[in-house]
Amino acid sequence: VPFITFILYKFTSFGPWLLPRIRKNNRILNNLNDENNHMTLRDSE
What are the domain boundaries of the chain? Predict the structure, then answer.
C-alpha cells in the first residue's frame, strides 16, 4: 500500500491535489495547539 500511494503521489495528479489539503489540515491543527497552549498558560497564572 505505501508503494502504491507513493507512485500515485509522484506520477499522477493525486500529489498536487492532495498536498494543499494536507498543509491546510496541518495549519488548522497547529493553530488549535497554539490556542490550547495559550489557554493553559493563562489558566496556570
Answer: 17-45
Phi-psi region of 26 (alpha: psi -120 to 50; beta: other; left: phi over 0): alpha
Beta-carbon contacts of residue 14 (< 8 Å; ≥ 6 apart): 8
Q: Give the C-alpha separation, 2 to 22, whole Å.
A: 17
Cα separation, 36 vs 45, in Å, equals 15
Please give the Cα distance from 26 to 19 (Å, whole number): 11
> What global pTM score does this model have?
0.48
pLDDT digits (tens, 9 = 90+) for 3-26: 988 888 889 888 888 888 889 988
